[in-house]
Specification:
Helix content is 31%, strand content 17%. The protein is α+β, with helices and mostly antiparallel strands and 181 residues long. It has a domain at 46-171: endopeptidase domain like (from Nostoc punctiforme) (endopeptidase fold (from Nostoc punctiforme), Alpha-Beta Complex). Strand 5 (131-137) and strand 6 form a beta hairpin. The longest helix is centred in the first third of the chain and has 20 residues, at 2-21. Residues 1-22 form the signal peptide. Keywords: Hydrolase, Protease, Signal, Thiol protease. Belongs to the peptidase C40 family.
């Protein structure tokens, strides 16, 4: 439990620091949902999920560039995800959002999201995936939104993202505490 509390405190501090550097808040205040308490050994995230979480948050502010896949060239949404997973977890993912959504990975209900899960959206209506991000916890995800923008944190509870939400995939499975030496 102490590990979880330390992780939540560190995430809150990182979010506060990033919020201090962010643009003014949107006109409608969105309250973050209360963090889900971890209560079973299988609920504890792996070290790789933590690495993905911190790497993704560390890229907030990087410019958007269609087809971009590095911090120096900028990112589009799938390039950001691929870079973070390769760099932080040593996991190669497909390059497009459609291929990522089609991967043989566990689909996750929105109510069971964990840090490191991939979230997919249809920003143009219908059921065709057109955008993706990395869930970082506390109802937020990191994504590279659009031309002229930068990588940023966003709330899944924002009406736009709720309407566009399609699915989530868990690429990194949690480790069981019983398996740790």
């Amino acid at each position: 439990m102490a590990l979880f509390q330390a992780r939540v405190a560190l995430l809150a501090a990182a979010a506060a620091l990033l919020a201090a550097c962010a643009s003014p808040p949107p006109p409608v205040a969105v309250q973050a949902p209360a963090p889900r308490l971890l209560n079973a050994a299988a609920d504890y995230p792996s070290g790789k999920a933590d690495d993905v979480l911190f790497r993704a948050i560390g890229l907030v502010g990087t410019p958007y560039r269609w087809g971009g896949n590095t911090p120096t060239s900028g990112f589009d949404c799938s390039g950001l995800i691929d870079f973070v997973y390769r760099d932080a977890a040593g996991i190669a993912l497909p390059r497009t959002t459609g291929e990522m959504l089609g991967m043989r990975a566990q689909s996750v209900d929105r109510s069971n999201l964990r840090s490191g899960d991939l979230v997919f959206f249809s920003t143009q209506g219908g059921r065709q995936v057109s955008h993706a991000g990395i869930y970082v916890g506390e109802g937020r995800f990191v994504h590279a939104p659009r031309t002229g923008g930068t990588v940023r944190l966003e709330y899944l509870t924002k009406p736009y993202w709720q309407k566009a939400y399609l699915d989530a995939k868990r690429v990194i499975e949690p480790q069981s505490l019983a398996n740790n030496p």
